[in-house]
Automatic annotation (TrEMBL):
This is Uncharacterized protein. It comes from Mycolicibacterium sphagni. It comes from the Bacteria. The keyword Transmembrane applies. Keywords: Membrane, Transmembrane, Transmembrane helix. Residues 166-237 are annotated as: Disordered. The chain crosses the membrane at residues 13-33, 39-60, 67-86, 106-127, 139-164.
Length: 237
């Protein structure tokens, strides 16, 4: 049975702050699980499972933070932090996107901070269990109020990013160049360069309209020309 004096120690206060942070991390994991489930079912199952573990740990750490409970909280959340960092640097170990680094979004950063908070709080509570010091009621209230404010802000930002945010699509170098070229070459409706007459090809607009030479006069037949010359010669005589 835990006495009132034990409930007012800094070790117990650190455990409860860690429990609050674990509840926030669990809320974000539950919120983003459906999107991961649609992408890949095992990924959605993983997010639901880690959310359940964090939620169960909340009740244990708040009511009875034994050494085993605190150790489980430190190991589980430290492993989740390491897995998040690895997925953003080297990509997932297996799955559809294995080997491809994932995008860093606000939801992931918020979960990372909350889980780091759990690790720090649980570690402090674990270390201070043997030499815990008393904390006044006012001091405990201020610390818990600040912890709740930080967690609420992190959960709000994480939920806004996870539920309503859009992950940017990054194009590769070749794809981006082709898209830029297509956009550059596409004609703009209603725009015509002032130096180019409407309806003329580019070559004709640059060199001017092509002039057609006048048709040559048909030449007279050679026989007729010879008769005319003889006729004129006879008249001269």
């Amino acid at each position: 049975m835990i006495t009132k004096a034990e409930r007012r120690t800094d070790s117990r206060l650190a455990a409860r702050c860690a429990a609050v942070a674990s509840a926030g991390a669990a809320a974000i994991h539950f919120a983003v699980a459906p999107a991961h489930w649609e992408h890949w079912v095992p990924s959605g199952v993983f997010f639901v499972a880690i959310g359940l573990v964090q939620l169960i740990w909340v009740f244990l750490a708040w009511s009875r933070p034994t050494a085993l409970v605190l150790a489980v909280g430190v190991v589980a959340n430290a492993g989740a932090v390491a897995l998040w960092v690895h997925s953003r640097v080297a990509g997932a170990v297996f799955g559809p996107g294995a080997g491809q680094p994932e995008a860093v979004d606000a939801a992931g950063i918020c979960v990372l901070l909350l889980q780091s908070y759990v690790v720090m709080g649980a570690t402090w509570a674990w270390v201070r269990r043997a030499r815990a010091e008393q904390v006044s009621t006012f001091g405990r209230a201020v610390v818990l109020l600040g912890a709740n404010a930080v967690v609420v802000a992190a959960v709000t930002a994480g939920l806004a990013s996870g539920l309503y945010g859009h992950t940017p699509h990054h194009h590769g170098p070749a794809e981006a160049q082709d898209q830029h070229q297509a956009t550059h070459d596409a004609p703009v409706q209603g725009h015509q360069h002032p130096s180019e007459p409407v309806g003329l090809p580019r070559e004709e607009a640059m060199t001017g309209p092509a002039t057609t030479p006048p048709p040559a006069s048909p030449g007279l037949p050679m026989v007729e020309s010879s008769l005319d010359i003889d006729d004129h010669h006879d008249h001269a005589h």
